[in-house]
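Name: DUF4283 domain-containing protein
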Amino acid sequence: MESGGDKHFVGEEISFLAEELIQLSVKSSLVEPTGKSTLICTIWTEKSYNPDSFRAQIKSIWKTKKKFDIQLARQNLFLIVFELDDNLEIVMEGQPWLFRKNLIIFYRLTKPLERS
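Structure predicted for DUF4283 domain-containing protein:
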């Protein structure tokens, strides 16, 4: 997992791309926020990987003040729930994040998300 700090990934184009990719990943499922600061993410890859490996790498890289929980919502779709809003902001500011040289696409979950 890496953060390149390459700011050309950050912007409206990536925000739109992130929302579109997350919508495609969600399909007909309903994903609801928990009331805590929540991100939904997907890894931009067609290769298979071990979700536990992803979780372990994220937890070892992100140094947060309080714990966060990573839940598998479905294949290649994760919910990341933070105890502190500040920790979510730190993660978002550290983008782009990579897993095995593949971009991790994040979307801030503020309302139930469902593909129409």
